[in-house]
Amino acid sequence: MKILTAAQMREIDRIAIEEIGIPGPVLMENAGLQVAAVLRNELGVEAGMRVVVVAGKGNNGGDGLVVARHLHNQGVDCPVLLVGRISEVRGDAALNLEIARKIGLQVIEVGDEAAWKKARKILSETPIIVDALFGTGLSSPLQGLYARVVQDINDSGAFVVSIDIPSGLSSDTFELIGPCVRADLTVTLGAPKVAHFFPPAEDYVGDLVVADISLPPFLFERPGLNLELVELESLVPYFQPRKRDTHKGTYGHLLVIAGSRGKTGAAAMAGRAALKMGAGLVTVATAGSCLPVVARSMPELMTEPLAETDSGSISEEALGRVLELIKGKDALLVGPGLSTHPSTSAFVLKLLGRLKNYRNPLVVDADGLNIIAARPEVLSSLPEKTILTPHPGEFSRLSGLDTAEILRRRLEIVPEFARKHKVHLVLKGYRTLIASPEGKVRVNPTGNPGMASGGTGDVLAGLLASEAMQVKDLLQAAVNAVFIHGLSGDLAAEKVGEKSLTATDLIKFLPAAIRFVASGGEDDSEIG
């Protein structure tokens, strides 16, 4: 599902109206009908109830007038508080205002603060308010009368339904630009917007319903619409039963270079996760003294001892052996639990230097990223099929940007970085972003705060490397792995709670998550 800016949505509306020939009033009618349907079907609005629509002078207000008209026709007491002069309403909204008045719908003109003082009492007398004040075109903070109206809506105690976007939010940013309605439910039109999915703006949206207003689907496939929410349905084809005549070689042999003294768990969890995600074979190459711990973690894992430093991390001397091990492997994972010991760092940098022409997927995680961050010129020579998996702190070191700036501008910075360095980038965290070298960005909807604990990133690294061997499209492989990782966490949280959730719980619930996706969400036997 595409996530759009205001400009992108306006252009789609323009093409629909001017080039395809769908009249603007038809789109407005469709929008109002959809919102009215949500009020009836989701909130149980019926004849004899009261709903108040607070409408602005623009198209969002026009949508609200359509809602009010349909509810009025169905016996709902639905007065409209029009914030602005009736004479100032233009275009399609004016058409619907005229219709509303002709059918006897009560429209109360609120032209100034004195008029609002008289009218606002009605807000405390209704269980439901429809916010149709401002739509997606807002770019500056609400002031004066509009700010007062928003505050009174928020203080009313009513259930608030916003049309398209809560009034006061900008659809182009998830930062708050000023006072805004705090909705309980938002019915967005055509496609969701940026503000709907990222905090702090997301916190004002409430439950989100995406309403189909009969815009042709091909309009959302136009070039340049690169931001997209991952939906379960898009993953289903990749988790179907395997063909009968396959074998372990069909699903790839992954080499994991990971672990050091005190961090053997990182290597073990990455390897275990890779196997559970369907890899045919997994070999974990680790410091010699760490090997017994890793080997005991799962009998199906193969292991390889490497030369080590005095502190128990992989030594620079291991390079030759690792280059031999890479031969015949279908993917490579470097980083979990490695440490940044000088000799280990030299090993990683020399290894990456020898992989310029590597044709198989390479996943670099954790200490692998920290080592690269100390030598950022390495980024320009990474292999073509590289996936980097930083959390915001690691990405700050990689990019040289402040963490706060990364979080504030991540929708711009992440695709820019992926394009510049020709890598696939997975920025971990709430609403993990997955970006391709072509600038496509996918937003992951799964996961929960219980996953903010040690080892969950190691599990994700194993899932990514495993899936990258099995799915040729590297962006899709990354999307699959990130979605399943978060879903496993969600299923685990249902059983053990967020507070007690650990990384190994994610591995435990991987089979249930995979079954759930394979069934298109119908297999919920492990939930609850």
From TrEMBL:
InterPro entries: Carbohydrate_kinase_pred_CS, CARKD, Nnr, Ribokinase-like, YjeF_N_dom, YjeF_N_dom_sf. CDD domains: YXKO-related (cd01171). GO terms for biological process: metabolite repair; nicotinamide nucleotide metabolic process. GO terms for molecular function: ADP-dependent NAD(P)H-hydrate dehydratase activity; ATP binding; metal ion binding; NAD(P)HX epimerase activity. It catalyses: (6S)-NADPHX + ADP = AMP + phosphate + NADPH + H(+); (6S)-NADHX + ADP = AMP + phosphate + NADH + H(+); (6R)-NADHX = (6S)-NADHX; (6R)-NADPHX = (6S)-NADPHX. Keywords: ATP-binding, Isomerase, Lyase, Metal-binding, Multifunctional enzyme, NAD, NADP, Nucleotide-binding, Potassium. Residues 9-221 form the YjeF N-terminal domain. (6S)-NADPHX binds at residues 59-63, 135-141, 146, 164, 266, 337, 391, 458. Residues 231-517 form the YjeF C-terminal domain. AMP binds at K428, G429, Y430, R431, T432, G457. Catalyzes the dehydration of the S-form of NAD(P)HX at the expense of ADP, which is converted to AMP. Together with NAD(P)HX epimerase, which catalyzes the epimerization of the S- and R-forms, the enzyme allows the repair of both epimers of NAD(P)HX, a damaged form of NAD(P)H that is a result of enzymatic or heat-dependent hydration. Homotetramer. NCBIfam families: yjeF_cterm (TIGR00196), yjeF_nterm (TIGR00197). This is Bifunctional NAD(P)H-hydrate repair enzyme. The lineage of its organism: Bacteria, Candidatus Aminicenantota, Candidatus Aminicenantia, Candidatus Aminicenantales, Candidatus Saccharicenantaceae. The gene is nnrE.
